[in-house]
Amino acid sequence: MNTHFLHQQAVVLQENGLQLQLSADTTAYFNYYWLRDNCSSSFDRTTRERSFDIFHLEQPPRAASAEVDGKDLVISWANETHVSRYPLIMLADYVSGKHRADPADLARKAWFSDHYPEIPRFSQPELLKDKQLVAEWIRAMIVEGLTIVTDMPDSDQGLTETVRLMGHVRPTFFGEYFDVKTHINPTNTAYTAKALELHTDTPAEEYAPGIQFLHCRANSVQGGLSIYSDGVAVANAFRTIDPEGFRLLSEIDIPFYCEHDDYDMRSRQRVIELDQHGEVSGLTISQHMADIFDLPQTLLDTYYPAFCRFGKMLQDDRFMMRFMMKAGECMVFDNHRIVHGRLAYSATSGDRYLRGCYADRAEMRSTYRALVSEGRFKA
Ligand SMILES: [Fe+2]
Hints:
The protein is an alpha+beta fold. Helix content is 24%, strand content 30%. It folds into two domains: 11-93, NE0471 N-terminal domain-like (2-Layer Sandwich); 116-372, 4-Layer Sandwich (Double-stranded beta-helix). It is built from nine helices and 22 strands. Bound molecules: fe (ii) ion.
């Protein structure tokens, strides 16, 4: 086996992989399994799936010979009759072991209590006929976490067709859609006329739904102002003023529940969620669905003050927007980032009816990538 590096040689075969001269001053190592698995012939152009199954190789892959031919690396494999060709530009993308670039991995932009006039608004009939506008809408959702779709039809179907622009309606344990109006025997504080403090929805689910749609069909009551805060803005400010509290809220799982005669949903979640970069990606918080904290009582000596300090910050005038939702508007927001609620209203003063549902965040990002990027198979 050739393990000697020969001066000026572009490819040096080693035991488990090869060294390749990618440019005048860059030599990179590539593993034989990785190379064999990712030969361009491994992928079916029609299904766009991997059709090669490396589990069926009888012996570990090893190059018999390899050379640079123009802008490609060409490998003849030992133990099988197969030649692979790789564009050097493709290999360069994988040299450092960095994650594949993701067009949907956009930096978040925090917003504050004065944000209401600036919330990105999109007209529903315009969205239905313009895919580039849909891409702009989803981009705003990823970056800011909150948008308003205007000019909504006054129909159940109008909500469904809006969701379908980014994905599918994602059911929760209480079904596909929900109606927020006063109920005679409410199973949820939302279905009363009482104030509803800032929260994220259904935290008791193992994976709470990602994107929430709230379609305002009627709103003529006195009171009932909507309230919203950006969890990213608040958690980042909290991180600065109380690093230890931030650590507790982002590392310790607390219990959430939702219980009635026929269901007993439970989960454990961290109040502050971090993404792969260590940045705040959002929150899970709900005072009416927080279970009795079953943590060591001495830990609660530090956890509770941090939890309360953070909960108060969510409602701070610096962060919390208040506004009246109008019939024909649909609030669309990231249920893992944006906390929402409403002030109390007078149930006899008029009609208030919101119809809501959810979509999946990963599916929304998938739709975005498909709209804006070439992917690996479109070109
Ligand atoms: Fe809610």
